[in-house]
Design goal:
Elements: E1 2-14, E2 27-39, H1 51-65, E3 69-73, H2 78-84, E4 89-92, H3 98-111, E5 116-124, E6 127-132
Parallel strand pairs: 1-3, 3-4
Antiparallel strand pairs: 1-2, 2-5, 5-6
Amino acid sequence: MFKVAKMIHFNYGHRLLGGHDRCSHLHGHSARVEIEMTRPKLNAQGMVVDFFDIKRTIGEWIDRNLDHKMILWDKDPLTKLLKKAGEPVVLVKENPTAEMLARRIFLEARRMKLPVSKVTLWENQDSFAVYQG
């Protein structure tokens, strides 16, 4: 089995509802996501997938949809206020945890037909969440 990984950096804000103390306040992260791709055989170019193609597909999706966005649960009462103020808000159907974001990136890469096998999302230097299929 062959495996490659690409690191992509992005910044986002969120808050967690449901009694998470400090994390229940709006705050931001300088995140790093490691996207692993796996194939049993190399393609005609001798690669699992070209690193440039990873950046051009899922990397650009992250830039457009997550980078410098406030990611909030659609039940969050601050949603209307922030949207009214013109803030870039992304609504999700559950608490916007690192685990949820790792899964969302994984599923989007799969939708793009990338051979993604694992996504690791680092919220900071020493805390990360993993989703793998």
